[in-house]
Amino acid sequence: MSRYTPGEVAQRTGLSLDTLRYYERIGLLDGIDRTPGGRREYSDDDLGWLEILRCLRETGMPIQRMRRFAELCRDDDTIAERIALLEQHDQSVREQIAMLQAQRAHLRRKIDYYRAL
C-alpha cells in the first residue's frame, strides 16, 4: 500500500492543506496515520475517501450532511441510511442540473438575440 504526505495528497486531490486539516478536525477524516515524527501519512484508502468527500462537496452537499455520511460510514449496519442520504443528494444534484440547463438555455437565447441585432 502506498503512503502519501499531505502535500502529495493535496496535489492528487486538489484539496488544500488547510482543507485536509479542517476535514480531520471536524471528523470527516479520521484514523490518519502518523509517522514516528508525528507527520500525517495518508493511504490509498484515505485518497479514495477524499475523492467521495470532494465529490459531495463539489456537488453542493452541506458539511453537516457530509459529517453525517462519514458517521454512517463508520458503522457497518448503516448501508440503507447511506443509500438514502446519497439518493437524496442525487435528487438535489438532478434538480441543480435541470436549473442550470434552463438558465443556460436562457443565456443562449440572449446571445442569439444580440447576434441578430
Q: Your description of this structure?
A:
- This protein has about 120 residues and is mainly alpha-helical.
- Strands 1-3-2 form a three-stranded antiparallel sheet.
- α4 runs antiparallel to α5.
- It is flat, with a radius of gyration of 19 Å.
List the helices and strands and how they pair.
Layout: E1 3-4, H1 6-13, H2 17-25, E2 33-34, E3 40-43, H3 44-58, H4 63-73, H5 79-115
Antiparallel strand pairs: 1-3, 2-3
Helix pairs in contact: 4-5
Strand order of the largest sheet: 1-3-2
Structural class: mainly alpha
Number of E strands = 3
What is the count of DSSP helices, taking H or I runs of 4+ residues?
5
Short description:
This protein is 68% helix and 7% strand. It is mainly α and 117 residues long.
Summary keywords:
117 residues; flat; three-stranded antiparallel sheet; 3 strands; 7% strand; mainly alpha; single chain
